[in-house]
Structures are given as C-alpha cells and as structure tokens.
Amino acid sequence: MSRIADIAAALAGYDPQALSVQGVQAFLAQLVAPAVVSEREEVALREALGRVLAEDIISPVSVPPHDNSAMDGFAFDGAILRDDSPTDASVELRVVGTALAGTAWRGALAAGDAVRIMTGAVMPEGLDTVIPQEFCKVDGDRVRFPAKVLRRGDNRRFAGEDLMQGQPALRRGERLSPAALGMVASLGLPSVPALRRLRVAYFSTGDEILSLGEPPREGAVYDSNRYTVFGLLTRLGCEVIDLGLVRDDPATLAATLQQAAGQADAIITSGGVSVGAADHTRAVMQQLGDMAFWRVAMRPGRPMAVGLVPRNQQAAPGSAVLFGLPGNPVAVMVTFLAFVRPALLRMMGCHEIAAAPAPLLRARAASAIRKKPGRTEYQRGFVQAVAGALPEVRIAGNQGSGVLSSMVEANGLVVLHHDQGNVAAGDEVDVMMLEA
Ligand SMILES: Nc1nc2c(c(=O)[nH]1)N[C@H]1C(S)=C(S)[C@@H](COP(=O)(O)OP(=O)(O)OC[C@H]3O[C@@H](n4cnc5c(N)ncnc54)[C@H](O)[C@@H]3O)O[C@H]1N2
Ligand code: MOO
After folding, report:
1. Which of 135, 219, 319, 433 has the fewest beta carbons closer than 10 A?
2. DSSP labels, 167-200
C-alpha cells in the first residue's frame, strides 16, 4: 500500500509532470503529519528562542499586578471632571503626597486631593485618573491644569490588562519569538516546557561537487547547498544532522539514506532528482522509499522529489519524510521556502497560525518583468521603502537558478503567480520577504 499513490489518487487533476505550486502544497498537506515530535523538555528561557511550546502556559499572576499610572503626573479622582464644563475651565487640587514606582502610597485622601505619581507606580486607593505633568502648573502644594485635556480614567493601566491570572498566556504549538520570551519572563517563569527539536538530516549528491577543503578541480564546484540548507534549518530551530557529500554510487547513496531515516524526522537532499543519465539518486530513492518525482510548474525549482523512507522497524518505527530538492543553489532555497519550511513547521508541532506562511507584501515593480502564464516564478528582488506610498521592488540582475550572488543581494522574492503574465513598470506585485 503506497501512501504516495493514495494521496495522488485523491488529488483532483494530479499530474506529476506538471504540478502547480498549489498542487505541491496540497500534496504536502496530506503527506506531512502534524506534530511528529512528542518528547518534551524543560528549556531555560535564553535557550528557548524559536522552540515550540509543548503545553499552554497559564499565567500564575496578573500582569500588571496592580492598577498603575501610565504617565508621570498627578493622580486624582476623575469624578470631578464634567462633560459640560466650559472649555477654559481649570481644575485645582491639593497635592498630599508622592507615589513612587515600586512602593504603594497609602496616605489618607480627602475630596480635592491629588497625589504626585510616577509612571508604573501603583494607583492610590480611590484615584482613577492621571494628568501628565506637562499640563500642570504647580504652586506650593497646589496643582492646576485645564479640565478639558483629559477624561476620567485616562492614563491609568488596569491590573491584568496584559495578562490575567489563571488565563492562558501562550498556546501549545506557539513558536517562541523575542516578544514571547519577554512575556514568559513577565510571568516570573525562568523556563518553558518545549517539544524537542525536529531532527533534520541532509546531504548533497553529485560527482562534480567538492567539499570545502578539497583543492579545486576542473569541472567541479564547491558544495554550497549544504551551507544554505544548514542556515535555513538552523534559523527554523531544527537539530541539524549533516551527512556530508555523497558520491553518485548506489551503495553509498542507499546506506546514507537509510542512516538518515534512522536518525531523523525529515531528510533533505539536493541534486540528482532530474533526468540526467548518471544520476543514481532517483533510482535509490525509489528503491528505498515510497516516492513521487515531480516537474513543478515553477521557476526556479522545477524537478523535485518527495516521499517517505521507512526506518529500520526494530530500532525506530515509522518513516522519515524525504524532500529531494533540485541541485541548483537558488532552486534549493526557493523550494525550501515555498514547500519545506511550512512542512517542517507543521512537523515541529507549531499550531496553524505559527506554521502559516508569512503574508505576502505588496510592492510596486520598478521596471517591467517578463512572465509566462502557466507557472509560478520567484524572482529575486530588492524591496525599498517609499515615503507615503507602496514600497518599490527592483529585480536583481542575474536570475539564473545557480546564481547565489543575486540571492545574497535580494531581500525578497517577487512571487509571480501561476496565471499571471507580464508585469509593466509601476504595476503592483506580491513579494515574499526573506528573513534578515
Ligand atoms: N533535460 C532536462 N535537464 C534539466 C531539467 C529538465 O527538466 N530536463 N531541469 C533543470 C533544472 S530546472 C534543474 S534545477 C536541474 C536539477 O537537476 P538535479 O536536481 O538533478 O541536480 P544536478 O544535476 O545534480 O545539479 C544541478 C546543478 O546544480 C549544481 N549543484 C548540485 N549540487 C550542488 C551543491 N551541493 N552545491 C552547489 N551546486 C550544486 C550542479 O553542479 C549543477 O550545476 O536540472 C536541469 N536540467
Ligand atoms: O529548479 Mo531549476 O533550478 O528550476 O532551474
């Protein structure tokens, strides 16, 4: 029973020789199980950036813990402010004390009293409004300010307005951002329960590829894909397993693929998935795994393979998901961003929102772009802010799928959709921003 064949049979209009980008995404949504990792560990906050929460975090306290002032100024009872008072009316109050941040002021208050207060200081009992000091004239123990500059309740922050004790602060499946780290810290928690990192093994294939350290050789190029894949995976928070460079030899390829399946949740390879004569990669994948080989209607990234490689059942049950990416260096990055990244986020246990692709940005094309309808193109571009208007995107020079220099220069990929045709200078286009 082939899982690949089942999914293929269930997908309307499935054609492995001309699969749309949406078709690939729909296929992967069926193939890739969500939350394949279940083991959890307690992780110190500083180590937790990018980790996925194994359970909801329930707030043990309210944040902020007390009603407090949002401004430096004077706290008073806002009941004295009236909607119908004349525009030039002013308020005069007696200042009876000072509330500093860090300690609660507990003096006695009479009607018409105010307390000088600092930002973050606990609101004195019975006072609900703060006039910022910029509006005030102070004369001895008297403070005066125009009545119309504020309303009752202004500049008071409520206890629990950020987080309420007993309520979920963060959801299971959240991938921890810098803001989430700060939020956990604001609850007084030094660590979080996280799912273990997703393990991803990767290797490059090809006899014309050189490992770093080898002397240059005619007809050979250095292995750059292992480094872009390393960077992409590391930034995603995966545990990376580098299985090196594998020669185009069936026995070595088979052994490496089996080793990868035994160690990892997912496997990424580059090269050897198109139709070249000397490539054994396809044959070995097909022999060991349940595979699909596609020609995707996209550029770059046309040839691609996906499938499941079973593990040695005694040692570890199940199978690893294999992503066989094309060899061209930019095709590797584009197929990773379009397909592998969202799939890995799902496998990592991210909830739907955290695993969703980043929204596309709208930008104005600085010059005309040629585009044939019937495939999705990802063109490297440089997006720049324009004051008071949509950002402008300039297409980077050489769009060859082996050209990394334009990928380095780019800060975004202009996404020219499947049915879209030529773009005129000044037209709006969608851009997938690349992470800085
Ligand atoms: N007759 C056809 N030829 C090709 C087709 C096709 O449909 N019909 N598709 C082209 C496209 S598009 C791509 S992409 C490549 C993909 O081929 P493979 O995935 O089999 O990759 P390779 O042939 O092994 O390599 C392609 C290219 O990339 C360079 N490369 C490979 N690995 C690395 C690495 N680790 N680091 C740096 N560079 C690497 C390799 O030297 C080649 O130049 O096929 C087209 N041909
Ligand atoms: O995948 Mo190939 O790089 O489209 O050119």
Report:
1. 219
2. SEEE-TTPBPPHHHHHHHHHTT-SEEEEEPPPEE
CA atoms of 237 and 347, how far apart (whole Å): 12
- What pLDDT band is residue 154 in, cutting at 50, 70 and 90? very high
Kindly give the distance from the C-alpha atom of residue 381 to the centroid of ligand 1, in angstroms, as a whole number. 23
Give the chain's domains with CATH numbers: 3-37+197-355 (3.40.980.10), 41-63+161-194 (3.90.105.10), 68-157 (2.170.190.11), 361-433 (2.40.340.10)
Residue-wise pLDDT tens digits, 173-214: 999 999 999 999 999 999 999 999 999 999 999 999 999 999
CA angle in degrees (0–180, nearest 5) for 38-40-45: 140
Q: 332 C-alpha vs ligand 1 centroid, how far in Å? A: 10
- Going by CA atoms, what residue is nearest to atom 5 of ligand 1? 274
- What is the residue with the minimal CA distance to atom 33 of ligand 1? 327
**Ligand 1 site-directed mutation target among 225, 280, 328, 378, most atoms within 8 Å of CB:** 328
Question: pLDDT by residue (tens digit) across 314-346?
Answer: 767 799 999 999 999 999 999 999 999 999 999
- The whole-angstrom separation of Cα 207 and Cα 204 is 10
* Across 218-239, average pLDDT: 97
Amino acid identity, residue 280?
H
209 Cα–ligand 1 center, Å: 11
Percent residues over pLDDT 90 in the chain: 91
* pTM attached to this predicted model: 0.91
Is any atom of ligand 2 closer than 6 Å to the C-beta of 375?
no
